Amino acid sequence: MPRFLLTRISSGLVVLLLVCLFTFVVFFALSPDPAVQICGKNCTPELIDQIRGNLGLDQPFWTQFFLFVAGIFAGRTYGDGAAAVECAAPCLGYSFQSSQAVWDMIVQRLPVSATIAVGAAVLWLLAGLVGGLLSAVKEDTFLDRFTTGLTLTGMSIPNYVLALVLQYVLVVRLQWLPFPQAVRFADDPVQWFGNFVMPWIVLAVGYAAAYTRLTRANVLDVLRENYVRTAYAKGLPQALVWRRHALRPALTPVVTIFGMDFAGLLGGALITETVFGINGVGKMAADSIARNDQPVIMGVTLLAGFLVVVGNIVVDVVYTAIDPRVRVNAR
Amino acid sequence: MTTTRSTTTGTEALLRVRDLTVTFATPRGPLDAVRSLDLDLEPGGALGIVGESGSGKSMTSLAIMGLQPRAARRTGSVRLRGRELVGMSQADLRRVRGDRIAMVFQDPLSSLNPYYTVGLQIEEAYRAHRPGVTRRAARKVAVAALERVHIRDAAVRVDHYPHQFSGGMRQRVMIAMALSTEPELLIADEPTTALDVTVQAQILDLLQEIRRETGTGLVLITHDLAVVSEITDHIVVMKDGVCVERGAVEQIFTEPQHPYTRALLDAVPRIDDEIGALRAVAPGSPAARENAARENGDLA
Amino acid sequence: MTSSPTDLTGTKTVAAGTGDTAEAPAATQAAGALRAGAGGTWQALRRDTGAMLGLGYIVLISLVAVLAPVLTAISGWNPYEFDQSAIDPNLGGMPIGPWGGMGAEHWLGVEPGSGRDIFARIVYGARVSMGIALSATALTTVLGVSLGLVAGYFGGRVDLVVSRVMDFLMAFPALIFMIAVLSALPASNRSALLVVVISVFGWPYLARIVRGQTMSLAQREFVEAARAAGASGTRIVFREILPNLRSTIIVMATLAVPGYIGTEAGLSFLGVGVVPPAPSWGQMIAASVKWYAVDPAYFVVPGTCLFLLVLSFTVLGDRLSAVVDAQEGR
Lengths: 331, 300, 330
Hints:
Chain A: It comes from Promicromonospora aerolata. Chain B is α/β, with parallel strands linked by helices.
């Protein structure tokens, strides 16, 4: 097992390095003058020069890249003398537009994004697993067909359209939910909850649809398996056949996919946060794109990549723990 | 381990099937996978059901257990020691399955659940029919079952997963699982088809041995005449869902009556045959085969 | 699931609409078994209401896209004209009249603030949505099928390289990266850039399936026979294996389109897609966010068109997949 883990971790690191490299290339090699873009709107030539010096943009590409990667592990100082800026490890970059280290900016907003991710995840897992199971059991009945129609719709409606529809219907028209207002949970739990309900729903809908279909397909597949027939032939009661022989093989792949989806979502639900005006990592990324604050964009990209890679590794490890066939080969 | 199943009270048949019919509804009308089939098996006897793919032999075995697909309709009578299985409640049927009648399927790899150890799968078969048995006692039964089918290091291998066994061993595991509850009747659906020839012989020997020791009745389903000739006393030849000939093994082999049976026998290459074209069983209706047979000079 | 334990999903579509930085698994099996009957795939599909409705809408939008100039000539407004008379400056640019200003003059109303005709912008936006999505699908299909075939058939080092690249691309945080790339690059040739960027991240999903199927087909006897007859590798791949993949490719391509439509719309929504003033449904929806409370028509119109288009392709792909599965006796 440890050797397997080591291989996965090392290839994960390679992937991360490549993500870093590609992002770096895109920003610093492709764009005509990064300093101008980083400087933002209210720029002066002095500021541009300062940025150029601080970020070492006049240095060769590989030096810049090396400095950046080293900064992730050891921290980094931008510029020198009185105007020097400290960026503690892990230094994912420094936003000159906001005068903050990117890492700090991310950490501030991570709890909000995590809340959205967790709430949505609970919703979509429940809906998906239950919906998929029911559809499989009642295959070809009206319920099944209705659910299929529902899932196709859920998969097809874009997040932002649904967000706007919900916002309009629930907040403006029916006034069932309050207008979003930034509050802390401790101060006003009701408002806090109300803030998150719609993002949770909007984010969960697409996944719930996909997971319902996936669960349904898996359960139907497993029920056709020979070993389920054997279980019935042994005279096992239906509940036991379902619980032990059908559900576990059917649901295991779903749970592992969930791991990857969730990891990806922790990196910020960009569109949903933007539409609802929620100050999470995703919105920060979207705002930075609009402002051309490239260090932030790059930092968030790296974070997202990191989470996906970690998610992948966790999923692979979990799979070896769950599926005996994979386990033996992994040793 | 011997049981006294073979001593019967009177001459009551172990298995008595009458007029078994399994029908599927298709867009082109109802299709009989099995039609009006009669079977008889004495306690401790061995019956072979022989036929090509699609002859309905596997469906017969499933229908006896009531495991035919939900889309199929089953009619007729299936009596196990006089007890009628058709129309039995699901609860009662569950008590019969795995306990009075056990089944061994063709492909042991897909017929065993890959997520659980073989020990667990044997234990659950046993415990389903012996309420109140503890896990430890059931585990002992599982180990004993594996030993009975000559799996070495049974105490260790009982915790292994199906994919850790070879094909022949897996089939032994399935047989062990079937026998753990000491059933009266064992139905084996193509138990050796997925195995290579040397392993086939071992499995057949095992089945013989078990029959000798426990007196369990055996219904063996196969397309392989060699297999049937070794193990069974009586044969039923099936074609297109219908029984075309039945009789004692020696009789069928020496004096086949039906042209289809004869064609089946002819299709098997024999060491004392002259070297010539292999005769395949001609497809088509029995009449067409009769004509072909006549042309070959086999019919008067 | 017929894939190996580490192949966790059958197909994935990169859909900015259904997931932000993650993708949602698309249909692997469809509900409602279809009897294929006599007469092949098309006949079976023809009998399916859902598929036909979807196809109908797709054809409609395609016609609209192609005939955009004609339609705007008829309606009288092009997508770039500002009609100040249709909006009320005292209300901050709100359209005059109910439903966002729908009426005989402007069939689908006008945009608040600018007074541009929504019908014209929808009609030209259809070009963008269909054009980019279909081009991306075509490019993805070409890339995915050829690389999948090559990796699956030739195996060895070729397979190793291709598989590594596929794993890498699939592990990438695609949406964020696409946004980052598109925002960093200058605005010229945006459409082509969108197609390329979307395709770069899209082809691995098709390639993986093609590779798997190629690998199992390559074991079959007819391939062996062809090889024994002296056929070269390329010939075998294109003459023997490719035809057998036809239905898989068609189904996957159909299912990829809605994902790409959503992706383009999402990217445009975020401001990195099609550059204004060129119309795009996604970008229209983005502009409508400010006005949603007072002029809901502004987001309902493009939103509905977008939703229906994605739904149509999804339903069509879903039904097609069911028909194909039924015919192959799965």
